[in-house]
UniProtKB/TrEMBL annotation:
Keywords: Antibiotic resistance, ATP-binding, Nucleotide-binding, Transport. SUPFAM superfamilies: P-loop containing nucleoside triphosphate hydrolases. PROSITE patterns: ABC_TRANSPORTER_2. It is found in: Cell membrane. This is ATP-binding cassette domain-containing protein. Residues 239-287 are annotated as: Disordered. Belongs to the ABC transporter superfamily.
Length: 287
């Protein structure tokens, strides 16, 4: 059931229409309809195996678009890959910082890869490091950084090209609560300063609730519900009351909404939020 696939104005930052991607017989993304508005922080939520990373890889052009359509600021991701790549910064789940380089060297490497003009490079690298609060640690080797600092360094790498769309795949998984809020505060500050659009995947309902303007609940390859966190919670409260739940029941949380949407489909084979928290794909980071 897709409640709000939503009309997708042509000038949205990201538009996916009936996007599908299969690995052999596994339908990782199965008819995804999604639109991310310019300037918003959009959270793609879902348990292990929901298809979030596969969808993100299609949007970033790292995977082809075998079926359906993906547009980024109007550019077709299947036909105009370079135009799409020029517009986005991507922080993948997997390690992208080099332990043997300093923070500044890591970001400089990305500035070169993304063709930041040579004469602007040093200033842009310093600016990106400052934006994530790493100016003081910039000349230390990355292997002396904490997990939260590494994540912020990866954020600086993605920001140095001044992307219009920042895509983050599980930016805070495995971090302690203070480091998690540190990462989000930096994302928020940069977004406010630049107006960039942010598309983020997360398992953490509390983060989505606090930091995302809108969220799409993804399960088995598709968006099952979409709206602001408050709209989604309110909608479930109303459905429950219509089914006879007492008005004194506590208001539903985003996790309640997800469980309602996914229903019995949220089983062992598709993963659960507890499983998710104990499986840290990127646990083995810089050592
Ligand atoms: N390279 C691959 N080869 C085969 N199957 C894959 C591959 N990558 C993903 N899959 C499968 O596709 C489905 C969707 O996986 P995907 O990683 O997109 O989900 P996800 O929502 O990002 O999950 P997670 O939270 O665990 O990262 C899963 O069933 C997964 O096992």
């Amino acid at each position: 059931m897709t409640r709000h696939a939503g009309a997708a104005p042509a000038d949205d930052a990201v538009v996916c229409t009936r996007l599908a991607y299969a690995f052999g017989g596994t339908k990782a993304v199965d008819g995804l309809d999604l639109s991310v508005r310019r300037g918003e922080v959009f959270g793609l939520l879902g348990p292990n195996g929901a298809g979030k990373t596969t969808a993100i890889r299609c949007i970033t052009t790292l995977l082809p678009v075998p079926s359906g359509m993906v547009r980024v600021f109007g550019h077709d991701a299947a036909r105009d890959r370079m135009a799409v790549r020029r517009l986005l910064g991507y922080v993948p789940q997997q390690l992208s910082a080099d332990a043997a380089l300093t923070g500044r060297e890591n970001v400089t490497l990305f500035a070169r890869v993304f063709d930041v003009p040579r004469r602007e490079r040093a200033a842009r690298v310093a600016q990106a490091l400052a934006a994530v609060g790493l100016s003081d640690a910039a000349d230390r080797l990355a292997n002396t950084y904490s997990g939260g600092m590494v994540r912020r360094l990866e954020l600086a790498q993605a920001l140095v090209s001044a992307p219009r769309l920042l895509i983050l795949d599980e930016p805070t998984i495995g971090l302690d609560p203070i480091a998690r809020s540190g990462v989000w505060e930096h994302i928020d500050t940069v977004r406010a300063a630049t107006g960039m659009t942010v598309l983020v995947t997360t398992h953490y309902m509390d983060e989505a609730d606090q930091y995302c303007d809108r969220v799409g609940l993804m399960h088995r390859g598709r968006i099952r519900d979409l709206g602001t966190p408050a709209e989604l919670c309110q909608g479930l409260g109303e459905r429950r009351r219509a089914q006879g739940a007492p008005a004194t029941d506590p208001p539903p949380t985003l996790e309640d909404v997800f469980r309602d949407v996914a229903g019995s489909g949220l089983d062992d084979s598709s993963g659960d939020f507890r499983d998710v928290r104990s499986t840290r794909r990127t646990a083995h980071r810089l050592g």
